[in-house]
Amino acid sequence: MQTSPAQSLPRPESDRSRSDEGRPRVDESRPDQARTGRPRVTAVLVTANGGEHLDRTIDGLVGQTRHPENLVVVDLGSTDGSTADIALGGSAGLVRLPAGRPFGEAVARGEHEAPVAPDDEPAEEWLWILGHDNAPAPTALAEMLSAVEIAPSVVVAGPKLVAVDDPSLIRAFGESTTRTGRSLTLVQDELDQGQHDRHTDVLGVAAAGMLVRRSVWRDLGGFDPALPDVDAALDFCIRARLAGHRVAVVPEARVTSAGPIEEFGRKRVSEARRVRAHRQAQLHRRLTYAPAGLLWLHWLTLVPFAIGRAIGHLVAKHPAAVSGELAAAFSVAFGSGVRRARRNVQRTRRVGWAAVEPLRVSWRRLHEHRTTTRDVELARVEDAPIARASFLGDGGVWVVLAAAVLSVVTLWPLLGTPALTGGGLLPLSTDVGRLWQNVGYGWHSIGTGSTGPSDPFAAVVALLGSITAWSPSTSVVLVVLLAMPVSALGAWFAVRKVTTRSWVPVVGAALYAIAPSLIGAVTTGHLGAVIAHLTLPWLVLAVLEAHRSWAWASGASLLFAVVAASAPSLLPVLLLGWLVSVVVGWRRAHRRVFIPVPTAVLFLPLVLEQIARGNPLAVFADPGVPSATRAPSALQLAIGQPLPDWNGWLPVVGSIDAGAVLVALPIVMAVLALPVGLLAIGSLLGHRWHVASAALVLALVGYATAFGATHLTVTGVGSTTTIVWPGSALSVYWIALVLAACVGIDVLPRTAPATGLVATVFVGIAVAPAFAAFTLGNAVVAPTTGRVLSAYVNAEAQANPDVGTLVVDPQPDGSLAVALERGQGSTLDDQSTLDATALRLSPAGTRLTTLAGNLASRSGYDPEPALRELGISFVLLQDAPSDDAAQAVYDRAAGAIGQDARFTSIGETATGRLFHYDGQVDRVTGGSAATRATHVLYLVVLGIVFGAAALLAVPTAPRRRRATSNVIEAEEPATTFDEERDE
């Protein structure tokens, strides 16, 4: 860069011969008023990679009507070549400092290198501080010198900082603080209409363009080294005020500014760094100015208050500010700059804080500032496009109510029941504390007991049970009963997001509420699949909106975790969808990046444990009670059916003609599903083909996942294994298909209403028998009182909660299924996929099976040691199925145990014959102290991660600003100076 015009800054002759007419007369008897000649100004220009602005700033210096006598350019390690070829001569010089040095240090170095007026030529010296982006207007220096000559008590003057690209926009004009020490720019980002030009007395000014008396600069020690950029100028001005001087703004002087001081020399400043800089400056000044008697109190509260403010940042949707808040508190609390700053203030202080009180910002003004910052957000919300459909006015509420009525009619046997059982369901523990005891890494009493991680679904179950703490199992009943209306509600909002016609979301909500995968999961007791189904539409909506705010992104992270924990088989689909959303929306992907973090924290212990066992695919096993599932065909999966019974039509019409039914049913079911498929594919022909194609790709991934689930057998059920439930993946397939079909309806011509109605009616006919499963007696789920074992065992468990019951279940193939239950019996929160997917028996499990096999037949085996060591006091021989082999095993076991003198027959129970062991058994102990400590630590980690996400997910709304006065604070002059000096 060539700077030959700036090699010398000559004094224009017009300046030398300027007339003194009109200037105030000087009282020569006053020492501080004695004229010492023309003021000498040294401009200190700090640059750091300022090639974009430096030429303009130097041209502004050259074009001044009143030139500075000296110029010192301080380069802070510029790498853009802006000062590589600079050659300054005459009264100008160049100083180079390493990159990263504070702005205040650069100014101090420039002041040190600047020449001093000769002793034989006494003159009042001034420093003019500029950054590379502070191009001054031609009269800027002259206006500020005129202002300080008129008011000799003013030792610091600041110009009006305006935008580089728009001089009519005020960037900053005057600074002050609140009563608690928070810095505040008095005028910021306002259109300049001269509304603030009448008020010049302020508490502080910005460093950019600051004109300061050099003797005062040296006496006060310059900028505080502990304030590298933010609030450095404000702190200096406050110390000048406390020293008895004045600080003023000169509205006639204009200097450009490209951004706040923390952005000086940086391409980008992260939110965390910005928060840390401002908060650290505030805390440092608070400790610096605090009375000696209260200093210790301020220091002790630094870190606790920082933690509280960090939580507040989470609630206010500013997660990036959390690290900055904490870092600032620790830096000030354990830094070394406060002591030096306090000594400097005490050395130069001449007046008390009451003298500057009128210049501080009042609470009313602070409230005005805070509400002003919300105006942009409020305007954005108010100016947003009108919603495509109204939930109350366009049928949304009616389709949800219809789904609720359908749920009541379909699930009427479950109304009023306290708990559910059957399929994958069992009642929950009656104690909420026990629910949370089963969450995370720790001791789990299922089977013979083991130490390890729980299923992530245990956290979902514990949360549900806590909602109805008086009866935890009631929450499961409510989820099942509300699944249809909640699914309809979520689908309505998800469809509204991608369509424009007001009635189309009704069609989508109806289609999703009667999905075959939902009713199949309800009737077979797959609670996790039910929760995943009703949560998926909300997750889709939250991911689509995640770029807008941290509330949406955090809500998406929580929903992501709920879906993954409830249906682990969806992990590949969820991760793939998340990656696509990040890549497609990469410009605003910083919020979506963190969506899987809570899920990773939830799944990490289980994943590591399954990998250590050599069975990583077992991570995808269904949570809950293991239950046998028959695999549907590829065609049945294509029309959304998770079971091979053709949505319940096979049991209904199978007795007519089995051969004809097997041929006709696939054709009929395919025809009934055809309208939805045609609408989905036809959506590619409309103008919203990109949305439809994304939905169809998601549907394809969901179908592939369901197909893969039917070929993955990792869970043991009795003497056999079962596939992963495909219904969860079919829920993904169905919501994507519904979204695509609704996009197709949205772009169709006048036939759209009839087409949507036909598609909904056809799907309703296809799933009709499935909805009548409870009436037809085909449902696996049944209401229960909540008691798992007999009343006799429950009574014993009151005194000994760890009492063991050996459950022997005859199998159709002639084998025995063996389980060990503690206390009142196994509950849903006790279940563990680690136990259900174990590749081999543990030593205790081997002993248990050996014991059961010998008890079920006559042998010379002595069961007493095993019964005592395992803590077994009861043996429950469950009723056998109708198979001959199972009945034979049952009869043999009943005879063997009944004839053993060590056992007393209690009698028949609701589930089988109960026997009591009359001998002494040992009390089973839980995990070690280390295990319990690990369990607590893991719960704390979960609480922090999910608590932070929950706080961020809580929506906040901006408040309307109330119009107040636009006048700068302190219309009356401050009392830090002798007013008579300026007369």
Automatic annotation (TrEMBL):
It comes from the Bacteria. Coiled coil: none annotated. Residues 1-40, 962-983 are annotated as: Disordered. InterPro entries: Glycosyltransf_2, Nucleotide-diphossugar_trans. The chain crosses the membrane at residues 287-307, 319-338, 396-415, 476-495, 507-536, 556-586, 593-612, 658-682, 694-717, 723-745, 757-777, 936-954. Residues 12-35 have a biased composition (Basic and acidic residues). The keyword Transmembrane applies. Keywords: Membrane, Transmembrane, Transmembrane helix. Residues 969-983 have a biased composition (Acidic residues). This is Glycosyltransferase family 2 protein. It comes from Curtobacterium citreum.
